[in-house]
Amino acid sequence: EELTVIRKFEHIEHCLKKQVEAHVTTQFENIHFVHRSLPEIDKDEIDLSVEFLGRKFDYPIMIAGMTGGTKGSQLAGKINKTLAKAAQELNIPMGVGSQRAMIRKPETWESYYVRDVAPDVFLVGNLGAPQFAETMSNRYGVEEALKAVETIQADALAIHMNPLQESVQPEGDTQYRGVLKALAQLKNELPYPIIAKETGAGVSMEVAIRLESIGVDAIDVGGLGGTSWSGVEYYRAKDERSKNLALKFWDWGIPTALSVAEVRYATKLPIIATGGIRDGIMIAKALALGANLAGVALPLLKPAVNGDVEGVIKILQRYIDELRNAMFLVGARNVEELRKVPLVITGFAREWLEQRIDLWEFLRDRS
Ligand code: FNR
């Protein structure tokens, strides 16, 4: 149990101090808007609000789950409360990090609890998919899921899928057999929305179709191009053999832009585009490809660690300014209209998508 707590702390340390991002891109650079010289709208009339899982948010941005459970240092609690204050002020949703530590050590619950500072925020709890696997000893079920949600008064539960990270760490949970079936059962029993969430390697359309078939409420594609969990594990690896494995898989996965396109093409599920989102133009492109929200993690970690609420807001405000500007220049008054503007897809992104989806049909209809 101690191990889970220590591990979470090491993750934060490495994410703060080391280069943990992918060496390859999200592929948003290959998605192009077509500039519109006559936008035929006023920039001031642009409405950035969106609906997601029955709630309305002021901006189509989510603070992705990062932490919790590092008792003793109080660090996790400070990070979550700082992010929550920013989310409350902007009226955007936020997630907490894996609550595995809390399930094992209930006394760490406060490090995930933000309702005192963020009474209205749409809050997403977080548990790991392998914990629900058939072959897992002490496997999770609805009881643990309910505990995760209700202890912190969350509105939904994210189940993170992280086979990449687990596969490159020596102590990793590489049991994934029966997870889909377990999630189907959980979906029947849990009275809260479930978000299936990748953590940096992207969701393919095949997986998305299966998740939709069991009634999952939304998908966070957590694509390649931002934080690499294989990268983080590279720094944690103790011996050459583990270091080699983590390094080889540093850039494994489906780039975020392509994952959004695949999932939107193949399902009707609400999509959160997370993974390497680093400016508002990327957010605009993600939404234009069919995402409902864009999620951000790593860039917010540094101000959050310092308890700097204004610092978190400043980064998000910059993204919002850039998003609004991009929407103005393509004449989109709201996110729905942004889904209808023309896009041009070039290079690697085009090659990938031509082999995976009917690209021309997709470009005509991305709703
Ligand atoms: C994460 N992420 C994450 N995801 C999850 O589902 N459970 C978790 O416990 C964590 N923990 C975590 C810690 C830290 C320090 C970071 C930076 C990230 C993954 C996160 O939600 C997101 O999917 C990825 O980081 C990709 O987004 P960025 O970082 O490229 O914006």
Q: What would you note in describing this structure?
A:
With 367 residues, the chain is of the alpha/beta class. It has 16 helices and twelve strands. The strands form three sheets. The protein has an eight-stranded parallel β-sheet. Helix 4 links the parallel strand 6 and strand 7. Helix 8 runs antiparallel to helix 9. The longest helix has 21 residues. The chain is globular, with a radius of gyration of 19 Å. The termini are far apart. The mean pLDDT is 96. The structure holds ligand FNR. Ligand FNR binds next to helix 1, strand 7 and helix 12.
Search tags:
binds ligand FNR; eight-stranded parallel β-sheet; globular; 367 residues
Short structural description:
By secondary structure, the chain is of the alpha/beta class. 43% of the residues lie in helices and 12% in strands.
Strand order of the largest sheet: 4-11-10-9-8-7-6-5
**Distance, first to last CA:** 44 Å
Quaternary state of the chains? single chain
The class by helix and strand makeup works out as alpha/beta
How much is the radius of gyration in Å? 19 Å
Mean of residue pLDDT values: 96
Listed once per kind, the bound small molecules are: ligand FNR
Percent strand equals: 5-15%
- Total strand segments: 12
Tally the helices.
16
> What kind of sheet is the major sheet?
8 strands, parallel
The ordered H/E elements are HEEEEHEHEHEHHEHEHHHEHEHHHEHH
The unreliable regions are: none
Helix content: 40-55%
Shape: globular
